[in-house]
Amino acid sequence: MKRARTRSLGQQQRPSALLQAYFPNCHWTLYDYIVQVIPKRFEVHNLTLHLSDLNERQSVFLTEIIVAEPTDCTQKATGITVQKSSRSGRSIGEIVNRVLEGSVKDKNAQKSLNDCSILTYGYRSININRRASHAANYAAGHLFGVENYFPNTLVNSVKTADWEFLLDLIGDAAVAHILQNTFVFQYLSNNTYCQLSGSPLTELQTTRSITFAKRPRLRSQRRDSIETETMRLTCEREKAGSPEPPAVRTHISLASLKGTEVIFDRSRTLYARPLYEKSSRYCDIAKIWLGLPRDHILNRYQPVSFTENCLYDSEATETSVILDFDANEVQFKGSNLQVSDALPTSPIANVTTHSTIIVPSQSPLDFAAQHIIKYIFPQQFRLQPSIQQAATPTNRSKSFTRATSGLSRTANTFLQDSQGDAHREQEIMHIRSTKIPPRLRIAVSMVASMIKLHHKCQYAALLNHHCPQKANTSRDGMSPTLADCSSYYEVSCYIRSCLKRTVPDAFWGSTANREVIFKSVDLFVRLRRFESISLHTILQGFKTSDCSWLVPPPKPGGKAVLPSPCELAKRKELIEEFVFWVFDSLVIPLIRTCFYVTDSGPHRNRIFYYRQDVWALISEPYMKDLTTNALEKIDPKQVNRSHLGYSYVRLLPKDEGVRPIINLRRRQRPPGVNDYDMGPTSINGILTNALQILGYEKSMQPEKAGASVLGLNEIYSHIKRWKDAHYRASERLYFAKVDIAACFDSIDQDKLCNIIQDILREDEYLVQKYGVIHPSAGKIKKSYVKSALNGDEFPQFTTVAASVAQTLRNAVLVDQVLYRYEDKGTILELLSQHINENIIKTSCSNFLDSFFYGDMEKRKLAPISERPDSVLLRYIDDFLFISKDKTVVESFVRAMYKGFPEYNCTINPKKTLVNFDMTIGDQAIPCTKETDFPWCGLLINASTLGVRGDYARYDTAFVSDGLTIDRVRNPGDAFKHKLMQMLKAKFHPIYIDTTLSTKRTVCTNIYENYHLCAMRFHVYLKEFKSAQPFSDRFLFEAIMSLLSFGYVLLRSRTSSFSGRASGCQCEIGSHELSW
């Protein structure tokens, strides 16, 4: 008994850290809950419980079930009336049914399904007219007023004999309370749990970090808290004096945010399409627009002369303007300003043709400045704060949709009811009479100067000066390379030069402040693909005391006093709003309109800037060739009829030329919808169930995939199994690798469809979806997984979870009770369309590729590949053949060189390699005399079959190109986490198994892994050397934690599911690893 209890309690200690993040100090084992909590809530007769008095099954049940309560539930528990809980003679099934009836009633009252217990998923209330027929069922102990319209196997999990034992122990009321008001988790294995009741954990928010200890608050953090509180009081006081307009959203103070929560993502600048304009009204030649976009807020007010398109009402008391929508422009009387491209061609927003808009009786320049200042400082006018939107994760993923970006999505959306400016304009319409706050009156004149400076700025000339076109950039005979792009220094100089000529110096307050912002601009330009920068990082070193325009005008007769904390917080808020607008509405739009920003194939995360006109010249011939040879133009109606829709193509630059990339993960845009209101799913999302079914069939029929290996786990198991069965140390091995030329382009679509039709054996399949929660880098990571099963099967979710838990650690599995039946005919039709009728035919999944070439191996290579003295591996289209017999390897190479016309299979001779001398006719096959044979990033020893990592690609690549620096929040913790993640990939069992490789090879793998990690360590520190250096003590602790973490990885990899299945062993001790 004691042994069972000790094992269970020990196993639940680590996942309690995960549950602690959701339920701080409010989760117990079922045994502890019965002993500590139940007596405070219920009066149970003769409740005496000792594990020593129970059998092993009962003690394991009480110690492997975790009961958790929400924090508010625990707080409400004080002072409640103790209820009686006794055994009434009802079975556990009847108790569960009564709980379901009450929970479904509560479920109907809930606003969101996510607030309901997962036990109620698949249950709903019955119509009143049908309840009479269910009275007999109620009398028999069945559900009354509730029906089960879809199976929920979790209900069966709480109707077992173990729960019947619990019912006998604590009574009806206590069991009903546990099922209805608490969260219940069942232990599986590897510190992994399955949720049985309560709201789905995937929809709850955590309350704290789960990995890193909370550090004591520093003085600067306490000061920020003071500023936050004083600013909140200021905002409440100001709000009390000026009521909010009815159409304006609720004011959210910036004080509720931290600077680290306001993020500028690199992704907002990537892959922007050029903006075109007509060079002349009578010319058809299109030019690329350079500078801020045409519909930018600063471009709406343009210096022009008076024309007849604007009519004036002389009877108005103030200067009024009658807008002519047909002219599609607005001009102000007696002024040199115009609002262009600002009005739609149809009356909307309660503005009709020839409507009168009253313009205040000041100069049009001042009116324009007062209008634009509402975009820059929206919080000061009780508008929705744009910084709040930027800090929201959902809006952060929808790049370039900020409410104050000053950019319209189309040409005529000045007052359109859509995202961005349209909402801001509607908000401004309700506050038109609001006066400018006194502290912003100086800023209005500065904004007016900004308008003038903007129209004087020669953006195109500055671009030609700082980012000149390269010498080899010409329309004819152009050979595009990565050298055609502009350098980071050139792009940074251009952006800073534009800001210097556009933003008045008075906004910065001092040259030092301006240099702080310019330094951040340079950092933003140099960010890698997945990096971001926060507003907090941008403002490091910025002194608000230098900005005189932040100081409010003095009161008459008032004395000069030191600014209070509340005043300092208000100044900080204004600076944050202005700097946010500069980056959001000036820096990012300038980059998008002037440069095509992209990554590249050989340089991974490194970013390249091409001038938009240069990129147009580069991409034009390739797009023509792509649309002529690889793509076929179709009728737009065919796209609407297609189940899969269409995908997007972009060109990825290489050292020489470009490569077309098709993004099947991008959500589709329905007709008439802009880029920011995308469709519900992508092509990959539509094909998810089909691919899960293919994966199920691959696991059930592995012979159909032939020698296909998808990932290191399968490569390791195949090599290890063949070595243990057929290899002796004294035998010589012969290697050959071949690569199929144009693999995806050469696949015979009709033949592939026939192969898939034979592979799908079941008439119906069941696709199940469940959630997985596990810790990662001190945060909670949530993901959703789908798995396919035979349509005749409907397994208990706890059974599925127990199987999945073998491959997980420290996780919680949550059943979504989402099951979908897929008909074989429907799946075949969808896959056929994906293969034959997809607009982009060059994208086949790994499963389709595996089955296609698996059929080819079975029919054409079986006499060679099925020999016991040989082993064939294939990763996508890369074949590796190992044999003890040299003649067998030669036969394989000759067969592959000959090709298989029936499958359109030909190899690329340049990528063929053997480890012995061989010729075919007069052609010598490329040969390597090295002991280690390279294949798919691995070096396989030809004498021992030991495996090492292939680091040859780092000979011509920069280590920094593969990094992603986290500068946003907790950079020290992120630094440690990045280092640990760097070690994980090369600590796979294939590298550390001393039964597969020699001990010397394993030690070499560990050394090379730490060597690469040290190089990345150096690059990472170099990035932070000037901005945020780490202390020597911190670095020493990071290095020591890496050593201890490496040893933990060695032990965990050998004890993992794949390691145990393959008999992985590692004889490296901790002292050897540290040495």
UniProtKB/TrEMBL annotation:
InterPro entries for the chain: RT_dom, Telomerase_RBD, Telomerase_RT, TERT_C, TERT_TEN
Pfam families, A to Z: Telomerase_RBD (PF12009), TEN_TERT (PF11474), TERT_C (PF21399)
GO MF terms, alphabetically ordered: metal ion binding; telomerase activity; telomerase RNA binding; telomeric DNA binding
Compartments (UniProt record): Nucleus; Chromosome, Telomere
N-terminal signal peptide: none
Sorted UniProt keywords: Chromosome, Magnesium, Metal-binding, Nucleotidyltransferase, Nucleus, RNA-directed DNA polymerase, Telomere, Transferase
Biological process (GO), any one: telomere maintenance via telomerase
Domain Reverse transcriptase: start-end pairs: 633-940
The reaction(s) this protein catalyses: DNA(n) + a 2'-deoxyribonucleoside 5'-triphosphate = DNA(n+1) + diphosphate
Family: Belongs to the reverse transcriptase family. Telomerase subfamily.
Official protein name in the record: Telomerase reverse transcriptase
Provenance organism: Bifiguratus adelaidae
